[in-house]
């Protein structure tokens, strides 16, 4: 199995998406500032969307948009998978809403007199 | 094949921006870099033949998410330094409480 | 020290979990059976040129309805957390600065263009890439531009609430229309399908996507206004 075959098997979108997820996860776990945690969560969401969409990547094909009735015959042979695209579309919008909710919690915490490091809130756990 | 190479190069740029966003000490730089990650991800979505998703990611990821972070930082009076551990002083009328 | 070891172990565990997707599964050769069926039947059933729109609005319409509900819940949460009653008087004490002249002029020129562009995107969702979510985000951007250009103003809260509630009700009503006039909930054949590629085609798909676009735009504007502050 030579090196080109090995490289040909790697899905480039899934590989870069996975590394972005890992970088985001490390940011969530290793940094104490609340805003930094929120930013790392947002990066993780982008990575997860990339990984989900990588399932539908087919080399050498085009977007699933038909031009006319004539295209409909050849659609199955020339278009990428449309189902993961539909799923990721809603996931991106929900990611924004969840980020906004997370940040509103941080704003409430800080204006009630808390400090911006997650270490100092350790007594809030059970 | 050329598209694969373009996706790989964009992937490397995206990873570099993500690592920069987590490692840097300044919060503003971190926010801008996370907007950059979303922008390069939108380019990758376009290269793999998903224009709907690319439009959504570009508008939401590098547009509204950056603004939401900046509004939250301004509202809670957060300084730019990550390691500063300050608190906001409570106003004399109290902050509403859990009535 | 212990904590760093645990963090490294967690990241390595995730890496092992993601490895099969990146390497073993590889790149697919052709779409699966379900995707081929959708690509094949979308022009025949609904005459929708954009297959992703047909999947989001009708084939997987329930998922979109659930997503709109989740967006509503998150917006309600942000709005409930950040009301002025709970946060006390405004932290800046009312000393808001004025915005610059460039921003004010640009906001005046660009607002009409942005709203028209957003409406174009969600009206043509079944023909070109785009649709309700993208158009809603563009409209929320137009609202944001005005919020930035006039810092003392805030959103007309009553109007936004009415738009959002009416859009949600019209969405469910169009879905129920599918039960009476076509074969099921959210079936777009309630209205005539028309020819593929024309503006008035694909049944109720453009109408459904338009109300989704209005609802998403209204909700994102409400989130931005709540985060900006000075809501009562």
Number of helices of chain C: 9
Largest interface: A-C, 54 and 65 residues
Distance separating the two termini of chain A: 53 Å
Number of helices, where a helix is a run of at least 4 consecutive DSSP H or I residues of chain A: 5
Q: Share of helix among residues of chain C? A: 55-70%
SSE sequence of chain A, one letter per element: HHHHH
Distance between the termini of chain C: 47 Å
**Estimated radius of gyration of chain C:** 22 Å
CATH names the topology of chain A as: Helix Hairpins
Strand residues, percent of chain C: under 5%
Main features:
heterotrimer, B: 99 residues, mainly alpha, 3 helices, disordered C terminus, C: 232 residues, 9 helices, 69% helix
Write structural notes for this entry.
- The complex is a heterotrimer of chains A (126), B (99) and C (232).
- With 126 residues, chain A is mainly alpha-helical.
- Chain A is 67% helix and 0% strand.
- Chain A has helices spanning 3-9, 12-30, 34-53, 71-78, 82-111.
- In chain A, helix 2 runs antiparallel to helix 3 (34-53).
- The radius of gyration of chain A is 21 Å and the shape is elongated.
- The model of chain A has no long low-confidence stretch (mean pLDDT 85).
- In chain B, 69% of the residues lie in helices and 0% in strands.
- Chain B is built from 3 helices and no strands.
- In chain B, helix 1 (2-23) packs antiparallel against helix 2 (27-47) and helix 2 (27-47) packs antiparallel against helix 3 (51-75).
- The radius of gyration of chain B is 18 Å and the shape is elongated.
- Residues 91-99 of chain B have low confidence and may be disordered.
- Chain C is built from 9 helices and no strands.
- In chain C, helix 3 crosses helix 4 (61-81), helix 6 packs antiparallel against helix 7 and helix 7 (132-149) runs parallel beside helix 9 (205-228).
- Chain C has one domain (48-228).
- Chain C is 69% helix and 0% strand.
- Chains in contact: A-B, A-C, B-C.
- Chains A and C meet through helix 2, helix 4 and helix 5 of A and helix 1, helix 2, helix 3, helix 4 and helix 9 of C.
């Amino acid at each position: 199995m030579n090196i080109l075959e090995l490289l040909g098997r790697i899905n480039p979108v899934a590989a870069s998406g996975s590394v972005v997820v890992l970088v985001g996860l490390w940011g969530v776990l290793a940094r104490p500032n609340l805003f930094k945690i929120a930013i790392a969560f947002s990066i993780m969401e982008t990575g997860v969307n990339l990984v989900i969409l990588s399932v539908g990547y087919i080399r050498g094909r085009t977007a699933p948009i038909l031009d006319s009735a004539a295209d409909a015959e050849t659609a199955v042979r020339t278009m990428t998978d449309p189902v993961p695209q539909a799923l990721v579309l809603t996931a991106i919008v929900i990611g924004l809403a969840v980020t906004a909710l997370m940040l509103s919690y941080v704003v409430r915490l800080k204006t009630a007199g808390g400090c911006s490091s997650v270490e100092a809130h350790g007594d809030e756990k059970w | 094949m050329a598209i694969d190479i373009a996706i790989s190069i964009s992937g490397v740029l995206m990873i570099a921006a993500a690592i920069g966003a987590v490692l840097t000490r300044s919060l503003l730089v971190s926010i801008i870099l996370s907007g950059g990650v979303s922008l390069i991800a939108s380019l990758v979505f376009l290269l793999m033949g998903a224009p709907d998703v690319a439009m959504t990611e570009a508008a939401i990821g590098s547009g509204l998410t950056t603004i939401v972070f900046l509004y939250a930082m301004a509202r809670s009076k957060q300084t730019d330094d990550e390691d500063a551990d300050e608190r906001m002083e409570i106003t004399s009328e109290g902050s509403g409480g859990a009535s | 020290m212990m904590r760093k070891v645990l963090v490294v172990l967690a990241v390595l565990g995730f890496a092992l979990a993601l490895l099969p997707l990146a390497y073993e599964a590889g790149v697919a050769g052709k779409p699966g059976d379900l995707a081929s069926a959708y690509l094949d039947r979308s022009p025949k059933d609904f005459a929708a040129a954009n297959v992703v729109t047909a999947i989001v609005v009708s084939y997987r319409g329930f998922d979109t309805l659930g997503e709109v509900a989740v967006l509503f819940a998150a917006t309600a949460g942000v709005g409930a957390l950040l009301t002025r009653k709970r946060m006390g008087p405004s932290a800046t004490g009312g000393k808001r600065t004025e915005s610059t002249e460039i921003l004010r002029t640009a906001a005046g020129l660009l607002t009409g263009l942005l709203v028209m562009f957003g409406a174009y995107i969600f009206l043509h969702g079944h023909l070109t890439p785009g649709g309700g979510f993208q158009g809603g985000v563009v409209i929320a951007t137009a609202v944001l531009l005005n919020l930035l250009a006039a810092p003392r103003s805030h959103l007309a809260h009553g109007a936004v609430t009415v738009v959002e509630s009416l859009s949600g009700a019209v969405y469910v009503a169009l879905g129920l229309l599918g039960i009476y006039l076509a074969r099921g909930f959210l079936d777009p054949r309630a209205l005539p399908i028309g020819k593929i590629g024309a503006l008035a085609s694909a049944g109720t798909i453009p109408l459904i996507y338009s109300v989704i676009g209005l609802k998403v735009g209204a909700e994102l504007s409400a989130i931005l206004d709540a985060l900006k502050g000075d809501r009562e």
